[in-house]
Amino acid sequence: xxxxxxxxxxxxxxxxxxxxxxxxxxxxxxxxxxxxxxxxxxxxxxxxxxxxxxxxxxxxxxxxxxxxxxxxxxxxxxxxxxxxxxxxxxxxxxxxxxxxxxxxxxxxxxxxxxxxxxxxxxxxxxxxxxxxxxxxxxxxxxxxxxxxxxxxxxxxxxxxxxxxxxxxxxxxxxxxxxxxxxxxxxxxxxxxxxxxxxxxxxxxxxxxxxxxxxxxxxxxxxxxxxxxxxxxxxxxxxxxxxxxxxxxxxxxxxxxxxxxxxxxxxxxxxxxxxxxxxxxxxxxxxxxxxxxxxx
Length: 295
Hints:
Largest sheet: 6 strands, antiparallel
CATH topology of the largest domain: Beta-Lactamase
Distance between the termini: 31 Å
Number of strands: 6
Mean pLDDT: 86
Low-confidence stretches: 284-295
Radius of gyration: 19 Å
Shape: globular
Structural class: alpha+beta
CATH architecture of the largest domain: 2-Layer Sandwich
Number of domains: 2
């Protein structure tokens, strides 16, 4: 076990030094000496405390969970082979084939990071949120504050736990068609990942909790094609904001990239810009104070 902790710490430090902050969607300031990510930046991207990252790199934090290792692998934009190496370094078995992958390829992360003026969230095949930018958090809430099992769109829509409670007042003009799309996607995922225990638990719990979910599950026969839709968010800072929601499917990675946009010059675009400007001002203040914001 001591050897595994040493291997994990070595890999963590080496891969943190390798990743450009620009590729991670972070602002690079003049006079920066570190070529890779700072420790606090990795903590921010992975939703961890700086102290915990320090203890991991020093080999003092024992037995990181699979969820933590997965979050670090995504934050460091590791390849699948490197991700598996990091799992083994932590004394864990890498994710098995035949289960829903939460791995986000580096190219997808770089693409999403460059859409800084647009709220972007990346979801796995079971609609678990696995990557999001700061504007997504500003619009819809910080998913890193949720328990790992609750960071799922199906739980937010059909459940009664933390994910549902944290979801801002939101009206989807597609109505039941939106719900049907989520359920149809989950049915498709179950057919392709029959050995995934967490996916099966999500479906069984959702069917037990929600009559609407059970009704859709019993009637939907095929995955619904994703299309543009309109959503209205009642935001505590900018008020009601109507946005176009688009789902971009990443086939080879089995991911869904969700974006929210508004027409240029519209009042909704102005409200989104206000959120972004407020967010940037907050980041400037916290950076000068050496404190950390979670992504």
